[in-house]
Amino acid sequence: MSSDIFSLFEADTKKEVKNICSELKVTSEDLLYLVKLSEAKIVEFPYLHASKFIEETPENVYLTEKNIQAITNNGIGKLDRDAQKAVKKLFQAPIQVKRTTAHLFYRSDYRFWHLFFFDRNDWYIRENHWDFGSHIHYVNWLWPNLECQKVWSDFCENGKKSIGGHEHIRFGK
């Protein structure tokens, strides 16, 4: 029997979760389906949903007063060296911004919960930090010493680096 995303919600042990994660491939549509089920508030899927989108912009991509002045002073025409540096920095900003997304599915008493999270680098097929390529991260209520509200507040404050010991799940678009 192959696993689907609902297998994670039915697992009773962390070992079972690890086995499911090793077989599973999740898509954007799977996550969207869980969100829609949560919004529908049906008895068969008694989970609420919270999401968080974090953007981290490195300091080195902000334009300095010197950069702005170089562009302003350059005027129309070929860019001088300082203006070229400023424009290059301007075009690097969208590439270097780190965007992290999380989807938390939880019951109203916070006892049962499931957190899926990822950033743009996790979806890269090549040069990925995980040997199997494109993936998302997952942790749930079966992890010892983790509580829903604490995990969520830590994630919202510090991003994915705040959650250790998570599982990887293959991701396909």
Brief description of this entry?
It is elongated and about 65 Å long.
Task: Please render the helix and strand layout as text.
Blueprint: H1 5-10, H2 14-23, E1 25-27, H3 28-40, E2 48-56, H4 65-74, H5 81-96, E3 98-106, E4 113-119, E5 135-140, H6 148-158, E6 167-172
Parallel strand pairs: 1-6
Antiparallel strand pairs: 2-3, 3-4, 4-5, 5-6
Helix pairs in contact: 4-5
Q: What do these coordinates show?
A:
Helix 4 crosses helix 5. The model has no long low-confidence stretch (mean pLDDT 86). This protein has 173 residues and is of the alpha+beta class.
Helix run count: 6
Strand order of the largest sheet: 1-6-5-4-3-2
β-strand percent reads 15-25%
- Judging from the principal axes of the Cα atoms, what is the shape? elongated
Helix content: 25-40%
Radius of gyration: 21 Å
Q: Main sheet, how many strands, which sense, barrel?
A: 6 strands, mixed
How far apart the termini lie comes to: 22 Å
Order of helices and strands: HHEHEHHEEEHE
Per DSSP E runs of 2 or more residues, the count of β-strands stands at 6
Low-pLDDT parts are none
Q: What's the rounded overall pLDDT mean?
A: 86
**Derived structural class:** alpha+beta
Task: Please name the defining characteristics of this protein.
elongated, six-stranded mixed sheet, 173 residues, single chain, 6 strands, alpha+beta, 23% strand
